Amino acid sequence: MTSWQKEVLAYYSDTMPDKLRYKAAQFLIENMDAHYSMHNEGVDSFRWFMDSIFRLPHEKLSYYDRMYDSVISLYGDELLQEQEYIYDTSVVTADYLIENIEDAFRMWNAKWGKKYGFEHFCNYVLPYRIGNEPISSWRKKYINWGYPRVNKIKDSQLNHFYIYGAYKVLNTDIHAAVYYSPIPLPDFPATHLDSVYVGSCRTFSDLNINRFRSVGIPAAKDFTPQWGSRASNHEWVVMLPDENSCYPFGPNEKLSDHFFGREDHTLPKVYRQMFTKQKELYPLQQCDEAIPPLFQTVFIKDVTDTYVETSDITVNLFNHSRFEDNKFVYLAVFDDRDWQIVDWAKRHGSKATFKQIGRNIVYLPVYYTESGYIEPAGHPFALYNDGSYTMLIPSITHRETVRLTRKYRFSYKLKQLCKYMDGGRFQVANSEDFSDSITIAVIDSVRECRFHSLFTTCDATYRYFRYLAPDGSYGNVSEVEMYDSLGQHPAIKRMFGRRYAVGTHRLENVYDGNVLTHYERQFPDDSWAAVEFEEPQHISRVRFLPRNDDNFIRDGEQYELFYWDGHRFASIARMEGNEEGVLYVDNVPTNALLLLRNHTKGKEERIFTYENGEQVWW
């Protein structure tokens, strides 16, 4: 124990009758020895450069993206180099720690002391840091900002619901534009966060945590190291008003709205950033094996089961001589290109049990190598929503023909956009107002996000053609193509229809040949987009496309289907896309984990299994 730590404990032991303050000091001192910030010349230059930019008058968002790009080009190599660890025990002082404790107790006792207990206070209000940001005297600054917004309840009757009102005035006025960095960036000091105009999810999470903790409201940062169903990781704030409640949120959001609208985002694991050392992580830190960066800490706590239903799964491991002495095995999920580690387990011979893992996700057991790569340790498995699971071991003897329509998951939003076209009509007329219109084709049901064709009942020629969207759809459609009896596109003289588009989603987008533009009106009903032909035309076929993400099968583009053979994605076949937007591939192993890649363009691709004649996305 350092001399200044002894000084703090002596201060509370000798001069303070309140034993809780002494215990709070003990709590901080016992856990601070493994906390640190990181430093090198590149890190310091990055922080100085961006802070000076943010303190200037605000510019357009693109300006800040350029500034981030510039500072990364200048100091990126240094940011990726080894950094010096500055441990808290070498920079924190007795005065700093005492001031932090006193300010935290003052806010706790102002109102919330009867709302939650001392242990909760120590974990989620008292800490002077969140992650690896530089030490700074941040708490008084945040109190001066936040307390005037909540102090109107100071002398009122205790009402446990005031804390939710306090949330509304604290999580507000945050300019939370996100910069997606190609490399990991260092944390900003807490005293600089309120001036950051464009940053990362972590930046704005830290800002809100400090706001809440400064006025005595418990808060923490939760994160998933990798989504289970898409690329990228994510982190957010949780308000913890008592020992039994947890409310996730992002900047400026309504309380608990954070996962509403993320129906397709599955959580394999969720961890909480803690100030307290988590003893269950000690074995990883004490072993002589290479440890993935995610677990090179003792300050994360597994809280997955507070978010989703979980399962404990025991897997059989490959007989791999290279790793026969490894004590630990890891669990990875797919991030659209590679496997990313999200969990760990102790190895017990040829088996390992992974606990509290999220469902509706495909996992791969892996080893972590000294060079920082992963090596498959077992077969992947699909964990279903009901807790059952299937080992994805491809069959060499049983093969099938698969029908493919996409290379990326078919999201809930895309399914809804397809349904918006159910009941849509294609009409022709010789009057501009369509008073003499004839319906030549009706959309029955759209359940796949690709081009669809309808042959018409049209016998004569007409000057005008339109797509009449069903009521309640806001007109949503991406493309409509017309073909005459010779299979040619009739020449268009002009486009017209129901205006008042949402933003740039004009009716002209319906006929522009760009699959990523669409028509959308401000009003749900009576939406239509029409054309006048150069001369009357006979329309024999209509081809239409719902709003989409351009991950469906495209005519003329080059595709390759892969399956996981136990160690890697092995090629099955290469093929060319067609006008129908459907690929049939023979001789595919059953029970396989599959991946379809477009070699022509795009980068979004997602693993899937083939079950009951359909692509099942993971």
Jot down its keywords.
single chain; 618 residues; alpha+beta; eight-stranded antiparallel beta sheet; five-stranded antiparallel beta sheet
Structure write-up:
Helix 1 runs antiparallel to helix 2 and helix 1 crosses helix 6 (94-110). It is built from twelve helices and 32 strands. It is globular and about 100 Å long. The protein starts with a helix and ends with a strand. The mean pLDDT is 95. Strands 10, 11, 12, 13, 14, 15, 16 and 17 form an eight-stranded antiparallel beta sheet that branches. It has a five-stranded antiparallel beta sheet with strand order 7-6-5-8-9, covered by helices on one side. A five-stranded antiparallel beta sheet has the order 20-19-22-25-24, with no helix packed on it. The chain has 618 residues and is an alpha+beta fold. A hairpin with a 7-residue loop joins strand 6 and strand 7.
Short summary:
The chain is α+β, with helices and mostly antiparallel strands and 618 residues long.
Helicity, as a percent range = 10-25%
Number of helices: 12
First and last CA, distance: 50 Å
The share of residues in extended strands comes to 25-35%
Tally the beta strands: 32
**Overall pLDDT score:** 95
Outline the low-pLDDT stretches: none
Structural class: alpha+beta
Tell the overall outline: globular
- Largest beta sheet, briefly? 8 strands, antiparallel
Roughly how many Å is the radius of gyration? Answer: 29 Å
Topology:
Blueprint (H helix, E strand, L loop, with lengths): L2 H13 L3 H14 L3 E4 L1 H14 L6 H20 L3 E4 H4 L2 H17 L7 H7 L14 H12 L11 H9 L6 E2 L19 E2 L1 H14 L4 E6 L9 E6 L7 E3 L21 E3 L8 H5 L13 E3 L7 E7 L11 E7 L4 E10 L2 E8 L2 E8 L5 E3 L4 E3 L5 E3 L7 E6 L7 H8 L5 E5 L8 E5 L9 E4 L6 E7 L10 E5 L8 E6 L30 E10 L3 E5 L12 E7 L4 E8 L6 E7 L4 E5 L9 E4 L2 E4 L1
Helix pairs in contact: 1-2, 1-6, 2-6, 3-4, 8-10
